[in-house]
Amino acid sequence: MTAEIQVTRALFDDVMVPNYAPAKLIPVKGQGARVWDQEGREYIDFAGGIAVSSLGHCHPALVNALKTQAEKLWHLSNVLTNEPALRLAKKLVDATFAEKVYFCNSGAEANEAAFKLVRRWALDNFDESKQEIISFGKSFHGRTFFTVTVGGQASYSDGFGPKPGAIVHAEFNNLDSVKALISDKTCAIVVEPIQGEGGIIPGDAAFLKGLRELCDQHNALLVFDEVQTGVGRTGQLYAYMNYGVTPDILTTAKSLGGGFPVGAMLTTTAIAQHLKVGTHGSTYGGNPLACAVAEAAIDTINTPEVLEGVLKNEAIFRECLATINAEHKVFAEVRGKGMLLGAVLNEQYKGRSREFFLAAADHGLFALVAGTDVVRFAPSLVITEAEIREGMKRFASAVAQVVKG
Ligand SMILES: *Cc1c(COP(=O)(O)O)cnc(C)c1O
To answer: Which residues bind N(2)-acetyl-L-ornithine per the record (predicted)?
Structure first.
């Protein structure tokens, strides 16, 4: 018999690999857009588990899907298929440009599959010279070695030995910088329609359209990483639908499972055929529990009420942030779309986003940062107006505290 374990924040430092620096509090319960910690203190959640808890905490539709599936069948692996995976794939295909779906467990894995697929597609259709992937500065595509190397922050990929090659970075929203790099050696351009981790920077419509044209001119594939922007977050099921630009491959995760780990890569039949039997795989990909929850998430989110609600919530967020800014003058602008917003700190407060994040937690509000200059909000898509206004009251107190110094 072991003695009962005292679960405190100090235990983290004792037993966990030190690659994270979590806050002092430990949440134990969540309901909708509210969370409670070990001490029973209540928080409004504008972080949403970093754009994951798309329907808030413990949404009844997701709880029901999980419980129902948990009593039927948990896992098979891919030597057998299963009903939830096939239903979810059919719904994703019906709702998007895609004709084929590959399931995995995370955003990085969805991108890893996409990047391997573009290389294989190029090898099958052209020759070994066509391997180059163009990506963008400040982009983020996950933490596996391939995805971190495609990502635009060298500090995430340096220091692990030789990197995967044939990856170049252009400047986001600068089409000329892409024209300078693209050639017949390019097999794909990889882009987030709104850069998330990089600072909530929306792609210009003309830029994204231009990428589509350049890909068509050079026989390259256009990959949209919608891991953060997908599943209703911008008021459309996927952000590409806001732009009228259709990618060849789309990756999705985060909001897809509403808190249950699941990811997917969507593409066309013609491209998908290059991942033949045996070329790629995942033990858990398409797991029945994950797919049952994601199916319930898609059913709930892909409705006019929820998608229109996201844009209504955006308007309330912007109104509240404008009021706070009129009083305290801390933001230069508010960027982003729907329930993916970034309040950009002005010159005076540049580099201090973490102070706002910590002050917010002190006042009972979970926010996020996106780099050092942006306070990010990625709450539940179905957060109520009352919860937004209460959260903003707390955020106003936090901002006042930072301003007071
Ligand atoms: C979070 C994120 C990823 C990585 O997803 P994981 O589930 O953490 O692997 C990839 N791309 C974008 C745009 C993201 O925001």
So the answer is: 143, 282
